[in-house]
Amino acid sequence: MSEKREDAPTDGDAETEEAKDAEKSSIRDLLVSAAFDLFTESGYENTTVDDIVRRAGVGRRSFFRYFPTKEAVVFPDHDRALDELVAYMEEGPRDADPVGRACDAALLVMRMYAENADFSARRYALTRSVPALRRHETTVVRSYERALAAYLERRFATLPDGGLRAHVIAAGIVAAHNYGLRAWLRSGAQGDATPSVGQALDLVRRNWADSGESVVVVARSSAPMWQVMQRLETALKDR
User: Fold this and answer.
1) Residue 82's closest CA among 103, 104, 112?
2) Which of 28, 128, 164, 222 has the smallest set of CB atoms within 10 Å of its CB?
3) Distance between alpha carbon 144 and the CA centroid of its chain, in Å?
Protein backbone atom coordinates (compact mmCIF):
# COMPACT_ATOMS: atom_id res chain seq x y z
CA MET A 1 0.00 0.00 0.00
CA SER A 2 1.45 3.39 -0.96
CA GLU A 3 1.80 6.01 1.70
CA LYS A 4 0.21 9.42 1.24
CA ARG A 5 2.82 12.12 0.85
CA GLU A 6 2.90 14.55 3.76
CA ASP A 7 2.99 17.56 1.47
CA ALA A 8 0.23 16.43 -0.90
CA PRO A 9 -2.76 18.82 -0.94
CA THR A 10 -5.99 17.41 0.40
CA ASP A 11 -9.63 18.35 -0.09
CA GLY A 12 -9.51 19.86 3.38
CA ASP A 13 -6.58 22.09 2.38
CA ALA A 14 -8.47 23.30 -0.69
CA GLU A 15 -11.56 24.04 1.37
CA THR A 16 -9.45 25.94 3.90
CA GLU A 17 -7.90 28.06 1.15
CA GLU A 18 -11.32 28.78 -0.35
CA ALA A 19 -12.60 29.81 3.07
CA LYS A 20 -9.63 32.14 3.53
CA ASP A 21 -10.16 33.69 0.09
CA ALA A 22 -13.85 34.18 0.81
CA GLU A 23 -13.03 35.83 4.13
CA LYS A 24 -10.52 38.17 2.47
CA SER A 25 -13.03 39.10 -0.21
CA SER A 26 -15.68 39.72 2.44
CA ILE A 27 -13.45 42.03 4.48
CA ARG A 28 -12.36 43.87 1.34
CA ASP A 29 -15.96 44.35 0.23
CA LEU A 30 -16.92 45.58 3.70
CA LEU A 31 -14.19 48.21 3.60
CA VAL A 32 -15.17 49.42 0.13
CA SER A 33 -18.86 49.58 1.04
CA ALA A 34 -18.18 51.41 4.31
CA ALA A 35 -15.85 53.87 2.56
CA PHE A 36 -18.36 54.81 -0.13
CA ASP A 37 -21.21 55.17 2.35
CA LEU A 38 -19.07 57.55 4.41
CA PHE A 39 -17.88 59.48 1.36
CA THR A 40 -21.53 60.03 0.46
CA GLU A 41 -22.57 61.01 3.98
CA SER A 42 -19.58 63.09 5.10
CA GLY A 43 -17.57 63.80 1.98
CA TYR A 44 -14.30 62.28 0.88
CA GLU A 45 -12.02 64.80 2.58
CA ASN A 46 -13.86 64.56 5.89
CA THR A 47 -13.67 60.76 6.03
CA THR A 48 -10.62 59.14 7.64
CA VAL A 49 -9.31 55.60 7.51
CA ASP A 50 -10.31 55.26 11.17
CA ASP A 51 -13.87 56.20 10.22
CA ILE A 52 -13.90 53.55 7.50
CA VAL A 53 -12.62 50.68 9.67
CA ARG A 54 -14.99 51.67 12.46
CA ARG A 55 -17.95 51.53 10.07
CA ALA A 56 -16.74 48.24 8.58
CA GLY A 57 -16.18 46.71 12.02
CA VAL A 58 -12.57 45.67 11.38
CA GLY A 59 -9.17 46.74 12.66
CA ARG A 60 -7.06 49.51 11.16
CA ARG A 61 -4.42 46.96 10.17
CA SER A 62 -6.99 45.19 8.01
CA PHE A 63 -7.47 48.30 5.92
CA PHE A 64 -3.80 48.60 5.03
CA ARG A 65 -3.59 44.89 4.31
CA TYR A 66 -5.86 45.51 1.32
CA PHE A 67 -5.36 49.17 0.45
CA PRO A 68 -2.14 51.20 0.76
CA THR A 69 -3.97 54.54 0.81
CA LYS A 70 -7.43 55.99 1.20
CA GLU A 71 -7.44 56.76 -2.53
CA ALA A 72 -6.87 53.10 -3.38
CA VAL A 73 -10.13 51.99 -1.75
CA VAL A 74 -11.97 53.91 -4.48
CA PHE A 75 -10.34 51.73 -7.16
CA PRO A 76 -10.46 48.26 -5.59
CA ASP A 77 -10.54 46.18 -8.78
CA HIS A 78 -7.92 47.89 -10.90
CA ASP A 79 -5.02 45.63 -9.89
CA ARG A 80 -7.07 42.61 -10.95
CA ALA A 81 -8.04 44.26 -14.23
CA LEU A 82 -4.42 45.14 -14.97
CA ASP A 83 -3.34 41.55 -14.27
CA GLU A 84 -6.05 40.24 -16.62
CA LEU A 85 -5.07 42.71 -19.34
CA VAL A 86 -1.40 41.66 -19.17
CA ALA A 87 -2.25 37.94 -19.05
CA TYR A 88 -4.53 38.24 -22.09
CA MET A 89 -1.82 39.90 -24.15
CA GLU A 90 0.79 37.36 -23.07
CA GLU A 91 -1.51 34.57 -24.28
CA GLY A 92 -1.16 35.87 -27.86
CA PRO A 93 2.56 36.45 -28.46
CA ARG A 94 2.15 35.55 -32.15
CA ASP A 95 -1.29 37.03 -32.79
CA ALA A 96 -1.35 38.21 -36.40
CA ASP A 97 -3.14 41.40 -35.30
CA PRO A 98 -1.31 42.81 -32.25
CA VAL A 99 -3.25 46.08 -32.35
CA GLY A 100 -6.52 44.17 -32.34
CA ARG A 101 -5.37 42.04 -29.42
CA ALA A 102 -4.35 45.14 -27.45
CA CYS A 103 -7.78 46.67 -28.14
CA ASP A 104 -9.50 43.48 -26.99
CA ALA A 105 -7.37 43.56 -23.83
CA ALA A 106 -8.66 47.06 -23.14
CA LEU A 107 -12.20 45.71 -23.31
CA LEU A 108 -11.38 43.60 -20.24
CA VAL A 109 -11.01 46.84 -18.27
CA MET A 110 -14.37 48.03 -19.58
CA ARG A 111 -15.95 44.78 -18.38
CA MET A 112 -14.54 45.40 -14.91
CA TYR A 113 -16.54 48.65 -14.81
CA ALA A 114 -19.62 46.98 -16.27
CA GLU A 115 -19.62 44.18 -13.67
CA ASN A 116 -20.92 46.67 -11.11
CA ALA A 117 -22.45 49.54 -13.02
CA ASP A 118 -23.95 51.31 -9.98
CA PHE A 119 -20.61 51.29 -8.16
CA SER A 120 -18.82 52.53 -11.29
CA ALA A 121 -21.27 55.42 -11.67
CA ARG A 122 -20.82 56.39 -8.00
CA ARG A 123 -17.05 56.25 -8.35
CA TYR A 124 -17.13 58.38 -11.50
CA ALA A 125 -19.18 61.08 -9.78
CA LEU A 126 -16.89 61.01 -6.73
CA THR A 127 -13.70 61.11 -8.79
CA ARG A 128 -14.93 64.12 -10.78
CA SER A 129 -15.33 66.11 -7.57
CA VAL A 130 -12.14 65.16 -5.68
CA PRO A 131 -8.77 66.34 -7.10
CA ALA A 132 -6.79 63.72 -5.13
CA LEU A 133 -8.84 60.95 -6.74
CA ARG A 134 -8.38 62.40 -10.21
CA ARG A 135 -4.64 62.33 -9.66
CA HIS A 136 -4.80 58.74 -8.43
CA GLU A 137 -6.94 57.77 -11.41
CA THR A 138 -4.31 59.24 -13.73
CA THR A 139 -1.72 56.96 -12.13
CA VAL A 140 -4.00 53.96 -12.58
CA VAL A 141 -4.66 54.78 -16.25
CA ARG A 142 -0.94 55.24 -16.86
CA SER A 143 -0.29 51.70 -15.62
CA TYR A 144 -2.65 50.34 -18.31
CA GLU A 145 -0.94 52.42 -20.98
CA ARG A 146 2.51 51.20 -19.95
CA ALA A 147 1.35 47.57 -20.11
CA LEU A 148 -0.15 48.04 -23.58
CA ALA A 149 2.97 49.82 -24.83
CA ALA A 150 5.27 47.09 -23.46
CA TYR A 151 3.31 44.40 -25.34
CA LEU A 152 3.27 46.40 -28.59
CA GLU A 153 6.97 47.23 -28.31
CA ARG A 154 7.75 43.52 -28.26
CA ARG A 155 5.51 42.93 -31.29
CA PHE A 156 6.99 45.84 -33.26
CA ALA A 157 10.59 45.17 -32.28
CA THR A 158 11.61 44.54 -35.91
CA LEU A 159 10.20 47.84 -37.17
CA PRO A 160 12.47 50.93 -37.38
CA ASP A 161 9.80 53.02 -35.62
CA GLY A 162 8.51 50.16 -33.45
CA GLY A 163 8.96 51.93 -30.11
CA LEU A 164 7.27 55.11 -31.33
CA ARG A 165 4.43 53.13 -32.88
CA ALA A 166 3.88 51.11 -29.72
CA HIS A 167 3.57 54.16 -27.48
CA VAL A 168 1.40 56.15 -29.88
CA ILE A 169 -1.00 53.24 -30.37
CA ALA A 170 -1.10 52.46 -26.63
CA ALA A 171 -1.97 56.08 -25.88
CA GLY A 172 -4.65 55.95 -28.58
CA ILE A 173 -6.17 52.78 -27.14
CA VAL A 174 -6.35 54.29 -23.67
CA ALA A 175 -7.83 57.55 -24.99
CA ALA A 176 -10.44 55.71 -27.07
CA HIS A 177 -11.35 53.37 -24.21
CA ASN A 178 -11.73 56.23 -21.76
CA TYR A 179 -13.77 58.32 -24.21
CA GLY A 180 -16.28 55.53 -24.73
CA LEU A 181 -16.32 54.51 -21.08
CA ARG A 182 -16.91 58.04 -19.81
CA ALA A 183 -19.75 58.55 -22.27
CA TRP A 184 -21.39 55.50 -20.71
CA LEU A 185 -20.65 56.67 -17.17
CA ARG A 186 -22.07 60.14 -17.86
CA SER A 187 -25.30 58.45 -18.89
CA GLY A 188 -25.49 57.00 -15.37
CA ALA A 189 -23.99 53.69 -16.53
CA GLN A 190 -27.25 52.78 -18.19
CA GLY A 191 -27.40 49.89 -20.64
CA ASP A 192 -24.43 48.10 -22.16
CA ALA A 193 -21.06 49.85 -22.20
CA THR A 194 -19.71 47.67 -25.01
CA PRO A 195 -21.11 49.61 -28.02
CA SER A 196 -19.74 52.94 -26.79
CA VAL A 197 -16.28 51.61 -25.93
CA GLY A 198 -16.16 49.20 -28.87
CA GLN A 199 -16.91 51.95 -31.40
CA ALA A 200 -14.09 54.09 -30.02
CA LEU A 201 -11.61 51.20 -30.08
CA ASP A 202 -12.63 50.26 -33.63
CA LEU A 203 -11.33 53.66 -34.75
CA VAL A 204 -7.89 52.72 -33.40
CA ARG A 205 -8.05 49.31 -35.09
CA ARG A 206 -8.88 50.88 -38.49
CA ASN A 207 -6.23 53.59 -38.29
CA TRP A 208 -3.48 51.14 -37.37
CA ALA A 209 -4.65 48.10 -39.30
CA ASP A 210 -1.33 47.92 -41.21
CA SER A 211 0.83 47.97 -38.09
CA GLY A 212 1.83 44.33 -38.20
CA GLU A 213 5.37 43.06 -38.11
CA SER A 214 7.47 43.27 -41.28
CA VAL A 215 9.48 40.43 -42.77
CA VAL A 216 12.54 41.30 -44.89
CA VAL A 217 13.88 38.76 -47.35
CA VAL A 218 17.21 39.34 -49.09
CA ALA A 219 17.69 37.72 -52.51
CA ARG A 220 19.73 38.31 -55.63
CA SER A 221 17.93 40.22 -58.35
CA SER A 222 18.56 37.28 -60.65
CA ALA A 223 17.00 34.76 -58.23
CA PRO A 224 13.97 32.91 -59.63
CA MET A 225 10.63 33.77 -58.09
CA TRP A 226 10.16 30.26 -56.68
CA GLN A 227 13.36 30.70 -54.68
CA VAL A 228 12.26 34.11 -53.35
CA MET A 229 8.92 32.66 -52.30
CA GLN A 230 10.65 29.72 -50.65
CA ARG A 231 12.80 32.09 -48.59
CA LEU A 232 9.75 34.15 -47.67
CA GLU A 233 7.88 31.06 -46.47
CA THR A 234 10.89 30.01 -44.38
CA ALA A 235 11.18 33.50 -42.86
CA LEU A 236 7.47 33.50 -41.94
CA LYS A 237 7.76 30.07 -40.31
CA ASP A 238 10.72 31.26 -38.23
CA ARG A 239 8.90 34.31 -36.80
Assistant:
1) 112
2) 222
3) 6
Name the phi and psi angles at 61, rounded to 5: -60, -35
Q: Give the whole-angstrom CA distance, residue 152 versus residue 238.
A: 19
The per-residue b/e assignment along 77-105, b for 16 or more CB within 10 angstroms, e otherwise, is: bbeebbebbbebbeebeebebbbbbbbbb
- The rounded distance, in Å, linking the Cα atoms of 171 and 238 is 30
The structural domains of the chain, ordered by start, are 18-72 (1.10.10.60), 75-207 (1.10.357.10)
State whether the Cα torsion 146-151-157-162 is positive or negative.
Answer: negative
- pLDDT tens over the chain, length 239 residues: 444 455 555 555 545 555 444 456 789 999 999 999 999 999 999 999 999 999 999 999 999 999 999 999 999 999 999 999 999 999 977 888 999 999 999 999 999 999 999 999 999 999 999 999 999 999 999 999 999 999 999 999 999 999 999 999 999 999 999 999 999 999 999 999 999 999 999 999 999 976 655 445 566 666 666 565 566 556 545 55
